[in-house]
Write a structure and sequence with these properties.
Strand content: under 5%
Shape: globular
Helix content: 40-55%
Largest sheet: none
Number of helices: 16
Order of helices and strands: HHHHHHHHHHHHHHHH
Length: 406
């Protein structure tokens, strides 16, 4: 694999208690010292972020690079630390976001208007402003029919497509209770996603190899952000597809097709037909494909999926400290979530140890000569995402990659 990463300077987990005793105990509970180190770094970075946001684009409402993302961070900090001042900050930022919605066809959680509306609904709900919360949810649901019909050539992927809207509904249910938005609304979207995938598979004449296929901007992407792995991850969530038969007949062979694309390194290509083994980011490569593999293992029980996911973990450990920075989409914080996902499934301390090492790297923010992202304080490219990860690490069993993991 050619590399866009720094050489990993950390000693790997060696199986001894000495290796982890300064970090966490045998139950995976962080030591008071390490938790304190994380918390004080969170406070320090928050101050830097708030100062930096003074010059951020006032019109960017999105979760990815804009104000909804900052609101989501504060909502998360409130959930972790229970400090009401964080909820107030979330309200300020999401109110700002609602004032500058795209009002275009962008309907997703990360890059469209669904994110600001969904985050606002939860913030209002937590503040016991039920009427405003309901209003946001009903505004969110106004897009539903458009998304199901796929008007305007709506793609299916996470950042700009159907599953990006689907996530907004899932987020509401995760935060406010599982049947806030009835399952049938989610199932109508997954039915459209399946129909679209079958249609494209026939169009590319590969239905014998992969019953489903998806493209974004004339490319068949593989990874979590724009590609197959991200879409299949959602199609394999229990109950999201109304008939388990579809999941077995359409999704499983399509997942197997992605598995066949694996490079000898254990990494995955960014697109079909691209044989350059370059990118190990959440958006392209192993750090995003791993969620599809772990979900496939949970649903189908095939040991090979877990083995492939473990290979993804090795790729992230070797090549995951990226020169691009510390962010979620293509940075060390986003890559570290792969270890947390492995840890939650296997309870192997190796994975939690590795996540802690990546956190150590992130706590030395700005000291490695990484390049500065275009939106240096945002949730998906910049510092807000790193803070989100450091806060998530305080409760490893509850950690979920934001705006993606169910």
């Amino acid at each position: 694999m050619e590399t866009r990463a720094f050489k990993n300077p950390y000693r790997d987990y060696d199986g001894t208690v000495a290796c982890t005793q300064a970090l966490f105990d045998s139950q995976g509970k962080l030591t008071a010292e390490f938790a304190q180190r994380l918390s004080s770094k969170i406070g320090e970075l928050l101050a830097v972020m708030e100062n930096g946001l003074k010059s951020a684009d006032p019109r960017d409402c999105t979760g990815y690079t804009g104000w909804a993302g900052i609101a989501l961070l504060y909502l998360h900090l409130y959930n972790v630390f229970k400090d009401p001042s964080f909820l107030q900050r979330a309200l300020e930022h999401v109110s700002h976001s609602l004032k500058c919605l795209t009002r275009r066809h962008d309907v997703t959680f990360l890059c469209g208007d669904a994110g600001p509306l969904a985050v606002a609904a939860v913030v209002y709900y937590r503040l016991q402003r039920a009427q405003e919360a309901d209003e946001c949810i009903s505004r969110l649901m106004q897009y539903h029919q458009t998304v199901v019909m796929g008007s305007g050539g709506l793609p299916d992927e996470l950042l700009y497509g159907r599953v990006g809207y689907l996530y907004a509904l899932v987020f509401i249910n995760q935060q406010l209770g599982q049947d806030t938005i009835p399952l049938q609304y989610i199932q109508q979207i997954t039915e459209s996603v399946l129909a679209s995938g079958e249609h494209q598979s026939k169009k590319f004449r590969i239905q014998n190899q992969s019953p489903l296929m998806y493209e974004w901007y004339q490319e068949q992407y593989v990874g979590a952000a724009h590609g197959l792995a991200g879409i299949y991850y959602f199609l394999m969530q229990p109950g999201f597809v109304s008939s388990p038969e579809y999941v077995h007949r359409l999704v499983k062979p399509s997942v197997d097709y992605v598995c066949c694309l694996k490079f000898p390194s254990g990494n995955y290509p960014p697109c079909l037909g691209d044989d350059r083994d370059l990118l190990a980011h959440w958006c392209h490569g192993s750090p995003g494909v791993i969620y599809m593999l772990l979900q496939a293992y949970k649903i189908f029980g095939v040991p090979q999926y877990l083995e492939d996911a473990a290979h993804c973990g090795e790729v992230v450990w070797r090549w995951g400290l990226l020169k691009k920075g510390y962010g979620l989409c293509h940075g060390a914080a986003g890559n570290a979530y792969a270890f947390l996902a492995l840890y939650r499934l296997t309870m192997d301390p190796k994975h939690l140890y590795r996540a802690c090492m990546f956190a150590d790297w992130c706590m030395n923010y700005g000291k490695h000569g990484c390049r500065t992202p275009d939106t240096p304080f945002s949730l998906f490219e910049g510092m807000a995402g790193t803070i989100y990860f450091l806060a998530d690490l305080l409760q490893p069993m509850k950690a979920r990659f934001p705006a993606f993991e169910v």
